[in-house]
Write a structure and sequence with these properties.
71 residues, alpha+beta, five-stranded mixed β-sheet, 2 helices, 5 strands, 24% helix
Length: 71
Amino acid sequence: MQAVDDAPRHHLDIETDDVPAEVERLRGLGATPVSRWQDCHVLRAPGGHLVCVIPVASDPELFAATATRWP
């Protein structure tokens, strides 16, 4: 979680090994695109919160061991 200059004043980063698929999954749940910078996508959830979808930045072994996977 990070503080941002936008209501509701915080956002969530989702780290993924498939950014395009995660962006499409979130769009299917009602999120709307806000911006994009390199491989990072910012979307607004239906409730107004910002969500950033980013490529894997963690240690690959840690990511593989602890990632939550959605169908």
